[in-house]
């Protein structure tokens, strides 16, 4: 198993309020989910998960947002929150709290759009923060390509450039996504690969925009990213 567990932190910027709030909200919602009887949990997923057919029929549009805060299991949650923890704070520190909130939600919507495009007839609810987090990864790749990502491989840790780690990650999504197109449901192993790809592409475009309008401060090796003397707007 390969997981990112740390990165270089930018020095100066905004406190990552929403990055941490989204982690807390997702974890809180998951504990609420597992406290429910199976029948109620199943109903919750169908009521607040995003179903492509319903969205295309103009039904339950709110699920495009609510589905971002539900997860299908422990590993689904842990994997998503780990990526959010490692990569989101630098983005928010640079672009600011309000911009990050809008960016994150739009990234999730872009991910839904890609998933629905390739699954227009699907009646399977989609849940998880993966699409929005994929947007974070895309923006991170553009804004911090040389940042050093600390990766856990089984019991060992190594450092790799963000461009290498995230480039390999999106390559995996692309291979899995194209393979899933050959499946009748356009899904593979229950994963909405094209939501990941759609979110990532949105993040790349957003990252290009943000690089042109904000200053990216200096970095420190997994130290405090916020330094009052380096704070900026």
Give an overview in words:
Helix content is 58%, strand content 9%. The chain has 233 residues and is mainly alpha-helical. The protein has a single domain, classed as Up-down Bundle (Rhomboid-like fold). β3 and β4 form a beta hairpin. α5 crosses α7 and α7 runs parallel beside α9. The longest helix is centred in the middle third of the chain and has 22 residues. The protein starts with a strand and ends in a 13-residue tail after the last strand.
CATH topology name: Rhomboid-like fold
CATH class: Mainly Alpha
Say which CATH homologous superfamily is assigned: Rhomboid-like
Number of helices: 9
| Sheet with most strands: strand arrangement | 1-3-4
- Overall shape: it is globular
What share of residues are in beta strands? 5-15%
Q: Give the overall pLDDT as a whole number.
A: 88
Quaternary state reads: single chain
Q: Based on DSSP secondary structure assignment, what is the total number of beta strands?
A: 5
Major sheet summary line: 3 strands, antiparallel
| CATH architecture verdict | Up-down Bundle
| Helical residues, percent | 55-70%
- The number of domains: 1
How many angstroms separate the termini? 39 Å
Query: Radius of gyration from the CA trace?
Result: 18 Å
- Uncertain segments are 184-189, 222-233
Give helix and strand order, one letter per element, not per position: EEHHHHHHHEEHHE
Question: SS-based structural class?
Answer: mainly alpha
């Amino acid at each position: 198993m390969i997981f990112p567990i740390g990165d270089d932190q930018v020095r100066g910027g905004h406190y990552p309020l929403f990055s941490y709030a989204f982690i807390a909200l997702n974890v809180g919602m998951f504990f609420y989910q597992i406290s429910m009887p199976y029948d109620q949990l199943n109903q919750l997923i169908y009521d607040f998960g995003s179903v492509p057919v319903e969205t295309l029929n103009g039904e339950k549009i709110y699920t495009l947002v609510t589905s971002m805060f539900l997860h299908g299991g422990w590993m689904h949650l842990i994997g998503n929150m780990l990526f959010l923890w490692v990569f989101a704070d630098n983005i928010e520190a640079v672009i600011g709290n309000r911009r990050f909130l809008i960016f994150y939600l739009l990234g999730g919507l872009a991910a839904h759009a890609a998933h629905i495009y390739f699954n227009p007839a699907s009646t399977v609810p989609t849940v998880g923060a993966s699409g929005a987090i994929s947007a974070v990864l895309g923006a991170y790749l553009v804004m911090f390509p040389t940042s050093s990502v600390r990766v856990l491989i089984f019991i060992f840790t190594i450092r790799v450039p963000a461009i290498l780690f995230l480039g390999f990650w999106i390559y995996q999504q692309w291979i899995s996504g194209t393979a899933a197109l050959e499946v009748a449901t356009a899904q593979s192993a229950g994963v909405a690969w094209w939501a990941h790809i759609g979110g990532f592409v949105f993040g790349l475009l957003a990252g290009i925009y943000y690089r042109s309008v904000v200053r990216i401060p200096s970095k420190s090796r997994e130290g405090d990213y916020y330094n009052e003397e380096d704070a900026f707007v």
